[in-house]
Design brief:
Largest sheet: 3 strands, parallel
Helix content: 40-55%
Number of helices: 10
Mean pLDDT: 89
Strand order of the largest sheet: 1-4-5
Bound molecules: zinc ion
Shape: globular
Radius of gyration: 18 Å
Distance between the termini: 24 Å
Length: about 240
């Protein structure tokens, strides 16, 4: 029998969340994880504020379709235009998805797309806190879930994304790829709920700039993955309301 580790319940209350902006402080060329970013400091800071504004709108949306409270474990959110999204040690989103108040009024299709993308990346990073690290000793149930998922053919041979090798090193990148099978599939399920249809959710996550091989594989294996998640020992990973 696999021991069941404690799964933290979602915070539910998203309205009291803190959204802090970390503003770009350099005037000249700005580097984002080693790449030159061709936005001025002022442009970056405007994007940052707009992203923070969008986050507040997402967090305050309590309509049944868009309520993210079941995917919410960290309320101290930061926006930093000079980094990539991460869940720990500090929860940080970048300013990649950013629409202006003018776009909200005059270009609702741009506004909605940016909002949907930002919600997806917010949920992705929050899901990392729920799922936890892929470590056999401290998370044996997750390890067994991943082991079962990797019997499904498109999940067995996913190439390791370059971004993971850069981030965690070659040795840990395979485990990080495997972990993202779980996180990215749960992100797909969350987007199905938000967007209303599977095809809209697929369309959204296939335009994310990173992890495309993983997203494609979980889309292809969606039904088979769902079957494994529905097994009694993994069911609570589905985050369904009783
Ligand atoms: Zn991730």
């Amino acid at each position: 029998m696999i021991p069941t580790p404690f799964k933290p319940p979602a915070l539910q209350d998203t309205t009291a969340s803190v959204v802090e902006c970390i503003l770009a402080s350099h005037d000249n060329e700005v580097y984002v994880d080693g790449e030159v970013c061709f936005l001025t400091k002022d442009e970056l800071n405007i994007r940052t504020h707009n992203t923070a504004r969008m986050l507040k709108i997402i967090l305050q949306d309590k309509t049944e379709q868009y309520d993210i409270s079941r995917y919410f474990w960290e309320r101290h959110l930061h926006v930093d235009p000079l980094t990539r999204p991460r869940s720990h040690p500090k929860f940080i989103l970048d300013a990649e998805y950013s629409a202006t108040p003018e776009e909200e009024i005059h270009h609702p299709e741009i506004w909605k797309r940016q909002l949907d993308m930002l919600r997806s990346v917010l949920v992705h990073e929050q899901l990392h806190l729920f799922v936890g690290p892929l470590n056999r000793r401290i998370n044996p149930r997750l390890t067994s879930l991943v082991w079962k998922l990797k019997m499904i053919s498109p999940l067995r041979e996913i190439p390791i994304p370059k971004i993971l090798i850069e981030r965690v090193g070659e040795q840990r990148a395979r485990a990080a790829t495997d972990l993202h099978i779980v996180v990215n599939w749960l992100e797909l399920q969350a987007n199905k709920r938000f967007m209303g249809t599977l095809s809209q959710a697929q369309d959204l996550i296939t335009s994310v700039a990173v992890y495309q091989d993983i997203y494609q594989a979980v889309i292809e294996a969606d039904v088979a993955i769902a079957e494994i998640f529905r097994q009694p020992e993994y069911r609570d990973y589905l985050l369904e309301h009783p």
